[in-house]
Amino acid sequence: MTVESVKPETSESAELREPPLAGGAVPVLGHGLKLVRDPLAFMSGLGVHGDVVRLKLGPKTVYAVTTPALTGALALSPDYKIDGPLWESLEGLLGKEGVATANGPRHRRQRRTIQPAFRLDAIPAYGTVMEEEAHALTERWQPGETVDCTSESFRVAVRIAARCLLRGDYMDERAERLSIDLATVFRGMYRRMVVPLGPLYRLPFPANREFNRALADLHLLVDEIVAERRASGQKPDDLLTALLEAKDDNGDPIGEQEIHDQVVAILTPGSETVASTIMWLLQVLAEHPEHAEKVRAEVESVTGGRPVAFADVRALRHTNNVVVEAMRLRPAVWILTRRAVTDTALGGYRIPAGADIVYSPYAIQRDARSYGHHLDFDPDRWLPERVKEVPKYAMSPFSVGNRKCPSDHFSMSQLSLITAAISAKYRFEQVGGSNDTTRVGITLRPHRLLLQPVQW
Ligand code: HEM
């Protein structure tokens, strides 16, 4: 099915129906308890009730979209904007003026400012940093020692984002702070979203104090980065310079708050998502030694034994397919929301203005209606001769449309390079105390992945 054939109907369309209510609602709480208890199973089970279904979350009605074609239509339609509980809570904590939460003309202007740093032809300039960081991992890790994959993945993701996009030589100490701050902030934000107990989060409990301290440090860190760049008088060709030099629609410099919020809005999604994906890649390499071996052999055949380079990534077809398949089964971004700006329609169903709409890339990418052997880890499903079987929008981990992640090329290059560099040197085994079950937060990641590198 193409996007055109599921283009949202206008509200004038005849015979719009009300979407069916998803099964399992209980009085007062509706579907809330199910969503909180096991969000992944809940979202994955909605497809049997309809292509668009109504959910009751307490007194509120939320609409869930369950087919790839309709998620594409939703993401591409101007009738929906970024808004809803997820974004409100992000805005309150991370700032209201960054690209990830803005809408309308401000959003378009901000995308124009940041886009050049992420364009396909801009990525090779980041190759050396990505290579250095990928190989540094293999040198830090020693055979037989336990690798704490959470902190290591955060560390490398933050270092690559900060070194490539903000070009500072203030690394390690700050990357470490940023990793710890972000991990704490994201954990607390998720709790505040699913259990919105407002005033309770202001009480001086240790968890609240830790959250507030991390959030304050995150903002302080961003102020330090901006102030240092200004004080240096230098204007390297990077994203930070683009943000500092940006003008608003009247040609005036953008305000301090917007610069600050923009840096936050790029660093925060940039590190949490990549870090979570690296954790899943490590988990996959440990769980599927046959694919770890295939990646190793591919890297060797391409490099002839020299350290893998950024320029090799394009030739590493199986490695890339391992990354894509890991992202299919364990998408870092597992839930997305939109709000209808007008009375509109999706798939023949009426969506009223102001309605919150939700969908889950996790549910879409694991749906048996789109994928044969849907739960098998099968990187070969991405081979050119088989990829045609995948319905449009059934694999959109970076989303589509005007809110599509600007960093798809930047992220895929570093993920493939890291996977290649570590697999060339090691295979991995889980060790005692490791827990690779899925931890649901703002992103999906393993609870506590502990691995031992084993030299080939
Ligand atoms: C937006 C996924 C890495 C910066 C998004 C969205 C998704 C996504 C699905 C769209 C949200 C929506 O439609 O509502 C991912 C994944 C990543 C990744 C899976 C890595 C595996 C990054 C990195 C950066 C970044 C490395 C920056 C360094 C952003 C920004 C937005 C965004 C700024 C907001 C774009 C807008 O609203 O216009 N990302 N992302 N992401 N991402 Fe990423």
Descriptors for this entry?
binds protoporphyrin IX containing FE; Uridine Diphospho-n-acetylenolpyruvylglucosamine Reductase, domain 2; 2 domains; Cytochrome p450; 456 residues; 16 helices; globular; 12% strand; 3-stranded antiparallel sheet; single chain; 48% helix; alpha+beta
How would you sum up this structure, described in words?
With about 450 residues, the protein is of the alpha+beta class. It folds into 2 domains: about 140 residues, Uridine Diphospho-n-acetylenolpyruvylglucosamine Reductase, domain 2; about 290 residues, Orthogonal Bundle (Cytochrome p450), CATH 1.10.630. The protein is built from 16 helices and 12 strands. The strands form 4 sheets. It has a 5-stranded mixed β-sheet with strand order 1-2-8-5-3. β1 and β2 form a beta hairpin. The chain is globular, with a radius of gyration of 22 Å. It starts with about 30 loop residues before the first helix and ends with a strand. This is Cytochrome P450. Keywords: Heme, Iron, Metal-binding, Monooxygenase, Oxidoreductase. One of its GO terms (molecular function) is monooxygenase activity. Its cofactor is heme.
